[in-house]
Amino acid sequence: MITQLSISNFALIDKLSLELKPGFSIITGETGAGKSILLGALGLVLGKRADLSSMKDETEKCVIEAHFNIKKYGLNSFFESADLDYDDNTIIRREILPTGKSRAFINDSPVNLQQMQELGEKLVDIHSQHQTLSLSDDAYQFELLDAFAGNVILRQQFSGLLVSFRNKSKKLRDLQQQLAERQKEQGYHEFLLEELNAANLKEDEQQILEQTLSELSHAETIQENLERASALIDSDEFGLRNTLSEVKQSIQKIAGYSEQYQSFNDRIESVRIEISDIASELDRCSQRIVKDSAEMERVGNRLQVIMDLQKKHQVSTVSELIGIQQQLSEQTQSTEELLSVINRLENENQQLSIELENLAASLHQKRIGSSEELSQQLITILQQLGMPDARFFIDLKPSEQLNDFGKDSIELLFSANKGIGFQPLRKVASGGELSRIMLAVKATLARYSNLPTLIFDEIDTGVSGEIAHKMAEIMKEMSAHMQLISITHLPQIAAKGDYHYKVFKLVSDGQTSSQIRLLSADDRVNEIAQMLSGSELSDSAINHARALLN
């Protein structure tokens, strides 16, 4: 339950602190005094979106803080899953900075709006005037029936599995689309891969083959020049080897006269040795050179295979071909892995589908077993509220496909008068009837839910007199199970509250601000008397107010 609400710099509120009690609290005040501002501030601290227009002074920070006693409501698991510190007296704070940035805190730990909203839904239900229209929504009708039927845990299990099923289904569709796109070209890619695998490519092969082909193609020229070079080295008369021997003999004779001449001698010896080595290699190369037409054809064919592959794949090196080969291999392997993932997801989704079908069947059976009893309870309350001939029928039908609520469709049918057939609630109920029906729904939910706080924002719209008195009695009974706060214009309801707060405007130094205070017993008599007769209090209005309070 809410124990304290503090607001600063919000709408018409400069600074306000309100202590709230368990039981039935009433909030009254003239139209425009600021009752809706209180709800707006509470909405922000429960996770609604905010903007700078919420701030009274846009140069100052807006702070809204609510204290909750949550000891009896079993919310430890929420705090554990959100990694937040649990406290029986939990504080939720919302700050809106002059920059427009919003910050949220639970027990002084920063949280995002989603976490704040999730906790807020477990703490407070604010029934605004327009919410009466939600009676016609499937979601609200299922919420009512499932709360009454004790389906809350089943619904949570179903919703969790349904989210998983839908996520997997979306992923499965995406993967199947990827697979279809790959399979369009899969055959051609496999052919290309087989062709590259058969080619058995090696990294430096092309360069070696081109060099080998060049040697084979010019074998005669190579051999002729090798032999000529070898002859020039070994010629008896003018060969390099003999000439160098003569040069060495001449220098050797003077090598002992200086280090420079000795250096010449050493260098000439090195050249002579190198020339001898070259001559030997020239001879070996010359003997090895053979014009092999068959080998030349083999090398040429091999090179042609490589160049054809390069042309097909629009590349110029064997390295690039090997890269393409690897990509095609990985793609083929990836397709196989994709098929494996698709098969796994299909099996998982099939199992989830079976579990969802079973849960949906359980939900349906419990709903069928509770719908008539729920209708009867709503009728009993409406009879107390001046609708003796009201009848409800919950039309629950199995649907073909799974939906957010199981495999059911629902329609809340209503008849307010004898002799009138059932019709959808949204088509037949008047504004005053809808208010009473909504109170009946909330009163029923209060018995089967564990919600700490319920706030009615003028749920009594369209009713008066004895009906208002009956509504007040029902609210009083509800407040035995939860903290109930009602914003009202009806004295019959205001008189039933355990505590009565008044919202009013105060003008100071040309500035208007909204204030709220807890009324004393005498002030409360006067407030209810004003609600009965207007601003001029009469003795009869005061006596009537005292009678209502007593």
Automatic annotation (TrEMBL):
<protein>
    <recommendedName>
        <fullName>DNA repair protein RecN</fullName>
    </recommendedName>
</protein>
<dbReference type="GO" id="GO:0006310">
    <property type="term" value="P:DNA recombination"/>
</dbReference>
<dbReference type="GO" id="GO:0043590">
    <property type="term" value="C:bacterial nucleoid"/>
</dbReference>
<dbReference type="GO" id="GO:0016887">
    <property type="term" value="F:ATP hydrolysis activity"/>
</dbReference>
<dbReference type="InterPro" id="IPR027417">
    <property type="entry name" value="P-loop_NTPase"/>
</dbReference>
<comment type="similarity">
    <text>Belongs to the RecN family.</text>
</comment>
<dbReference type="GO" id="GO:0006302">
    <property type="term" value="P:double-strand break repair"/>
</dbReference>
<dbReference type="InterPro" id="IPR038729">
    <property type="entry name" value="Rad50/SbcC_AAA"/>
</dbReference>
<dbReference type="GO" id="GO:0009432">
    <property type="term" value="P:SOS response"/>
</dbReference>
<dbReference type="Pfam" id="PF13476">
    <property type="entry name" value="AAA_23"/>
</dbReference>
<keyword id="KW-0547">Nucleotide-binding</keyword>
<keyword id="KW-0227">DNA damage</keyword>
<dbReference type="GO" id="GO:0005524">
    <property type="term" value="F:ATP binding"/>
</dbReference>
<keyword id="KW-0067">ATP-binding</keyword>
<keyword id="KW-0175">Coiled coil</keyword>
<dbReference type="InterPro" id="IPR004604">
    <property type="entry name" value="DNA_recomb/repair_RecN"/>
</dbReference>
<feature type="domain" description="Rad50/SbcC-type AAA">
    <location>
        <begin position="4"/>
        <end position="215"/>
    </location>
</feature>
<feature type="coiled-coil region">
    <location>
        <begin position="328"/>
        <end position="362"/>
    </location>
</feature>
<comment type="function">
    <text>May be involved in recombinational repair of damaged DNA.</text>
</comment>
<keyword id="KW-0234">DNA repair</keyword>
